Amino acid sequence: MPIPVPTLIGEPAPSTPVAKAASTMKKNDSIQILRAVAALLVVHVHAIFSVSHHAIPAETRFFNLSGVGACGVDIFFAISGFILSTVAMNIRPKSSSAHSALDFLFRRFIRIFPIYWTLSLFFVLVDLKQHHLVLSSLVNSYLLVPSLHFPIPPPLIFVGWTLIFEMFFYYIITLNLFFGAGRVVERTILTIFVLIALGSIIGLQRPVVILLANPINLEFVLGCLIGLLFARYGKRHALGTVLLFAGTIPLVLSTFFNKYDIEANNVLNGSLSWHRLLIWGIPAAMVTAGLVFRSSQIRSPLGRFGVQLGDASYSIYLVSLPVFYVYERFYPHLASLGADPNVLLSTLLVAVAGLLCYRLIEKPMLHFITAKYHHPAVQSAP
Length: 382
Known about the structure:
With 382 residues, the protein is mostly helical. The chain has one domain (17-374). 70% of the residues lie in helices and 0% in strands. It contains 15 helices and no strands. The protein is globular.
């Protein structure tokens, strides 16, 4: 999942192109709004699926409207590649390679795991109650690592399958940081290309290889390329506008003309990863690049609310399945509203729950752990 830019290790002088790019990126409210849109697109897909257990929303009969929102994941991957590549480019080449690598990875752990572990407890309790909890599955789920089975089984929170790929991307950057911060993004891109090439030779239908060599990882590469280009050229408003429209049009058209089932399961088994990259991944990267090159601050009240939703997008994403689990149990009392109003209502409830989760749990937790990391407790003398 894309994450806000943390305090950077050894930021370069503000006059360098990379530092200017990072400074501009932090002020890019458009990217935050794009995160909110991506999260709500994914939530909408799961809302339709949840309501469909009880009634058939009209949306399911309108071409691929019920599934196209899954492209929000591809938008997240492109944003993540852009942000993390910019973070990596801000690490001073002369800093300690091991320290920079471990610091980079620990910051990713801080951002990803605490709230993920907290919300995963919901489904741990559900599985315990239903006697479905398997220790090996629990360990894989909590560590966000693939099992030794093919295809990759999703974590307890199903949407966490994307975090397995996200963490793998972080590990690739970390590995390359051990060899120095200079050109770390270029080496990361090369590493992913090499792994995918090897996977095409030996075949994806193997445990672990399905993660290491999955073509879906190229969506992070596209984000990295955006980061490299933005660091070099900065804002390009006209180019951003062209890319924004060039990416939005095929994403919208995929609602009508996509004949493939390119959702999660066919990425986890690798069968349609290339199709997803072409149909959603490249357009999603173009939309992301468009908003990056247009870099703007939003001042309208509605726009500021969109930015707040973007800040809470990770919580919205994770809290969606627990909310839908509870919502389904109350559905008989809401059935009279109709299927489509229930899709809208449940989506709104997830957005509200995600905002509350961000403000009351995720944000305070993140600040607390980050403060402890920056200011370790003073050890008393023996």
